[in-house]
C-alpha cells in the first residue's frame, strides 16, 4: 500500500514524478504529494492534495514556474494507515525547519514512543502519521551526511517500511531503504529512479536493481550506490526487465477492470504456456522440488488473502480430487499467528498476485521456518514472495491495475490446476487417458471464455444487473466448487459497489442466513452442472419459497435451470471441478455492471488499495 517514487537526474522531474505516481496510484489514492528540491532557493517545493492524482495535478497548476526547474524530487500516493485522510497527513513529510523531506510506504511500529521522545525534545509535529518521525529523526542526526543520518535512524525504528529521504543541503542525492516493503531502482542514462514498483518508471528505463532488505540505496547525479547497514558497498548490477510494456493503458475499454476481465483468455493461455503437454505431462520449472520429492508431498497448505484465498479454496478441490493429497486453505493473517504444524514433507503454497501482501509473506515465512517447502504462486516475477520462497509458480496474467482482482484470480486457479494435474500424474492418481483428457479440457478453457466474452452473454448479464442496481443486499449460495465462486462473486460486488453481501455454502443456509431473506431479496446461486446440481436446485426452491428472486449461474446448455430461477447467467461448459474458472466470469461482469449502474469508480473503490503491504 502507498506508492513512493524518487528521481535524481538531469531532467526537470515534476512530470516524471507525477506520471510515475499515476502508475502507482493502484497502491493507494487517499491523497498524494511531492517535494521537489529547489536548489536555488535552498528549500523544497511541496505540493500535496487530498484525493487522487488528478487533484494533485490541479493543486500544482498555480506553481508551474516553480516546479519546472528542479531535477531531484520525491513523491507519494497514500493509502491511509496512521492518521485520517487529510492534507496534513499527506506525504511528503518535512522536518520542522523544512530541510529534510521523506516519503514512506509501510508502518513504523514504535512511532508512538519515538514521537513522545521527540516531543519531549521540543519537536512539533504537523501530522498524525507514523512517517513524520522520520524527517524529524533524520534532521536530529544530520551532521552534513544524509547517509549517516539515515543509518542512525534505522537503528531506532521498528516495523516494515520503504522510504526515500532528501536533504536540501545535498541537492542531487536521495537515500532510500527498504525493510520488508518493496523498493526497486530504475537506472537510466544519467538519471536514477527509486520506486515501490516497476510501473513507476518502466516508460523511462528497464534497467532495474532490486535492493535487499536493509540495504541503503544512495542515488547521486552520477549514479547509484548500494551500501549495507555498516556502510560497506554491496555490488548490485542492474538487470533488464524483459516484461511487456506495462504502461497501464485501458486499450479502448472504459475501465481497467473491464479490460482485465476481457484479458482472461490471454492470461489463461499464457499461464498454461508450454507447461502442459498434449499427453497431460506438466512441467513446472522453478517450483524448486524434483519430481520424486514432489510426488512424496504428504500435505498441501495454501495461505493467501482475499481473492487469492478464494483461488486457493477452488484449488483445494482440484488437488484433493486429482492428486489425492489433503489440502488445507487458510487466510494468511490467521495462519501466521496459529501454531504452525507444517513441516518437512509438506508443501506450502503462498498465493499472492502482487507478491507483496504482508500477511501472506509472514505466513510463508512461518512455514519455511518449520522446514516446509514453500512455493510462491504469484504474478510478479521479482516480488518479495519470489525471494522469500523455495520455489515459484508464476501466473502470467500481465500487470493488473484494477483494484478488484479478476484475471489474476482465474490464472491462479489455472496454475493450481496444472499443479494438481502434475501431482496427480506423479502419484498415479490419474490414468494416462485421464491426464490426456484433462489436458484437453484445460487447453479448451481459454477459448471457451474468449467465445463467451465475445458472445451476447455479457450484454445479457448487464440486462439482468440492471434489475438489481438499487438492491441493498445480496445473498450468494453454492455448493462444492460453487462455494469459492460465491465467496469471490460476493467480494467483487461488495468491494466495487459497496453493497453488503453474504456468501454461504448452500447447505448451511438453513442454519442461519435464510433469516435474512424477505420478499424480493436477490439471491445469487452458483449452480453449474455437476454432482450437487440437484441439491442446489432444492436450495433454490427453499429460498424462492421465502419470496427470494434467484439469479442462477449455470452451465450453457442446461435445460432445467431456467424453470427454477428468475434470471440465469450462463457460463461456458467445463468439467465440474474447473467450473470456478468459468462461473466467476459472469459474476465479475455482474458486479461490474451493478457498480457502473451506481456510477461508481470500479477501478479505484473507496478505502481499498491494490497491494496490502501492512498487516
Ligand atoms: C480483491 C482483491 C484482494 C486481493 C488481496 C490479496 O479483489 O484483489 O482481496 O486478492 O488483497 O492480494 P494479493 O493476491 O496481491 O496477495
Salient structural properties:
binds fructose -6-phosphate, single chain, 7-stranded antiparallel β-sheet, Rossmann fold, 3 domains, globular, 615 residues, 8-stranded antiparallel β-sheet, 19 helices, 25 strands, alpha/beta, Glutamine Phosphoribosylpyrophosphate, subunit 1, domain 1
Q: Bound compounds, please?
A: fructose -6-phosphate
CATH topology of the largest domain: Glutamine Phosphoribosylpyrophosphate, subunit 1, domain 1
Computed Rg: 25 Å
Q: Got a strand count?
A: 25
Q: Level of helix content?
A: 25-40%
**Strand order within the widest beta sheet:** 3-2-4-1-10-9-11-15
- Strand count, sense and closure of the main sheet? 8 strands, antiparallel
Q: What is the averaged pLDDT score?
A: 94
User: Span between N and C termini?
Assistant: 10 Å
- Going by CATH, the architecture of the largest domain would be 4-Layer Sandwich
Q: Give me the CATH superfamily of the largest domain.
A: Aminohydrolase, N-terminal nucleophile (Ntn) domain
- What share of residues are in beta strands? 15-25%
Reading off the top of the CATH hierarchy, the class of the largest domain is best stated as: Alpha Beta
Structural class: alpha/beta
Low-confidence stretches: none
**What is the general shape?**
globular
What is the total number of structural domains?
Answer: 3
Please count the helical segments.
19
Amino acid at each position: 500500500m502507498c506508492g513512493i517514487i524518487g528521481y535524481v537526474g538531469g531532467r526537470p522531474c515534476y512530470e516524471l514524478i507525477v506520471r510515475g505516481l499515476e502508475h502507482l496510484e493502484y497502491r493507494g489514492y487517499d491523497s498524494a504529494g511531492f517535494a521537489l528540491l529547489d536548489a536555488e532557493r535552498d528549500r523544497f517545493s511541496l505540493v500535496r492534495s487530498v484525493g487522487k492524482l488528478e487533484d494533485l495535478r490541479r493543486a500544482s497548476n498555480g506553481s508551474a514556474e516553480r516546479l519546472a526547474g528542479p531535477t531531484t524530487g520525491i513523491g507519494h500516493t497514500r493509502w491511509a494507515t496512521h492518521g485520517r485522510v487529510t492534507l496534513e497527513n499527506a506525504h511528503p513529510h518535512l522536518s520542522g525547519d523544512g530541510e529534510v523531506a521523506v516519503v514512506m510506504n509501510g508502518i513504523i511500529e514504535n512511532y508512538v514512543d519515538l514521537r513522545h521522545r521527540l516531543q519531549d525534545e521540543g519537536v512539533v509535529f504537523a501530522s498524525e502519521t507514523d512517517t513524520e518521525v522520520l524527517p524529524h529523526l533524520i534532521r536530529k542526526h544530520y551532521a552534513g551526511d544524509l547517509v549517516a543520518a539515515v543509518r542512525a535512524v534505522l537503528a531506532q525504528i521498528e516495523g516494515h517500511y520503504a522510504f526515500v529521504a532528501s536533504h536540501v543541503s545535498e541537492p542531487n542525492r536521495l537515500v532510500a531503504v527498504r525493510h520488508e516493503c518493496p523498493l526497486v531502482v530504475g537506472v537510466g542514462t544519467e538519471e536514477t529512479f527509486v520506486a515501490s514498483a516497476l510501473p513507476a518508471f518502466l516508460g523511462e528505463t528497464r534497467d532495474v536493481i532490486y535492493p535487499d532488505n536493509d540495504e541503503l540505496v544512495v542515488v547521486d547525479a552520477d549514479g547509484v550506490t548500494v551500501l549495507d547497514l555498516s556502510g560497506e558497498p554491496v555490488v548490485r548490477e542492474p538487470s533488464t526487465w524483459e516484461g511487456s510494456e506495462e504502461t497501464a493503458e485501458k486499450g479502448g475499454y472504459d475501465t481497467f477492470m473491464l479490460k482485465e476481465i476481457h484479458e482472461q483468455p490471454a492470461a489463461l493461455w499464457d499461464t498454461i504456456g508450454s507447461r502442459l503437454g498434449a499427453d497431460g505431462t506438466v512441467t513446472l520449472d522453478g517450483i524448486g522440488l524434483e519430481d520424486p520429492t514432489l510426488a512424496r508431498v504428504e500435505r498441501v497448505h495454501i495461505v493467501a488473502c482475499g481473492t487469492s484465498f478464494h483461488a486457493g479454496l477452488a484449488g483445494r478441490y482440484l488437488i484433493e480430487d486429482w492428486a489425492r493429497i489433503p489440502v488445507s486453505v487458510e487466510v494468511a493473517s490467521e495462519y501466521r499467528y496459529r501454531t504452525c504444524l507444517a513441516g518437512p514433507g509438506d508443501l506450502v503454497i503462498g498465493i499472492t498476485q502482487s507478491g507483496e501482501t504482508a500477511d501472506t509473506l509472514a505466513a510463508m515465512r512461518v512455514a519455511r521456518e518449520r522446514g516446509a517447502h514453500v512455493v510462491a504462486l504469484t504474478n510478479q516475477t521479482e516480488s518479495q514472495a519470489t525471494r522469500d520462497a523455495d520455489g515459484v509458480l508464476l501466473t502470467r496474467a500481465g500487470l493488473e491495475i484494477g483494484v478488484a482482482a479478476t484475471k489474476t484470480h482465474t490464472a491462479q486457479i489455472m496454475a493450481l490446476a496444472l499443479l494438481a494435474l502434475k501431482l496427480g500424474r506423479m502419484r498415479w492418481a490419474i490414468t494416462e487417458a485421464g491426464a490426456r483428457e484433462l489436458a484437453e479440457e484445460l487447453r479448451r478453457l481459454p477459448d471457451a471464455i474468449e467465445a463467451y466474452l465475445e458472445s451476447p452473454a455479457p450484454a445479457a448479464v448487464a440486462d439482468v444487473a440492471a434489475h438489481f442496481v438499487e438492491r441493498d443486499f445480496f445473498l450468494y449460495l453454492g455448493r462444492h466448487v460453487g462455494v469459492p465462486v460465491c465467496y469471490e462473486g460476493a467480494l467483487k460486488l461488495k468491494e466495487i459497489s459497496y453493497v453488503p453481501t453474504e456468501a454461504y455454502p448452500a447447505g448451511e443456509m438453513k442454519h442461519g442466513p435464510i433469516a435474512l431473506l424477505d420478499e424480493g431479496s436477490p439471491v445469487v446461486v452458483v449452480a453449474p452442472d455437476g454432482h450437487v446440481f440437484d441439491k442446489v436446485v432444492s436450495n433454490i426452491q427453499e429460498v424462492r419459497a421465502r419470496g427470494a428472486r434467484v439469479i442462477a449461474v449455470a452451465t450453457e446448455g442446461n435445460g432445467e435451470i431456467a424453470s427454477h430461477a428468475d434470471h440465469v447467467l450462463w457460463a461456458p461448459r467445463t468439467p465440474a471441478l474447473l467450473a470456478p474458472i468459468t462461473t466467476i466470469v459472469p459474476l465479475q461482469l455482474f458486479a461490474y455492471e451493478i457498480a457502473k449502474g451506481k456510477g461508481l469508480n470500479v477501478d479505484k473503490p473507496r478505502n481499498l488499495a491494490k497491494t496490502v503491504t501492512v498487516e
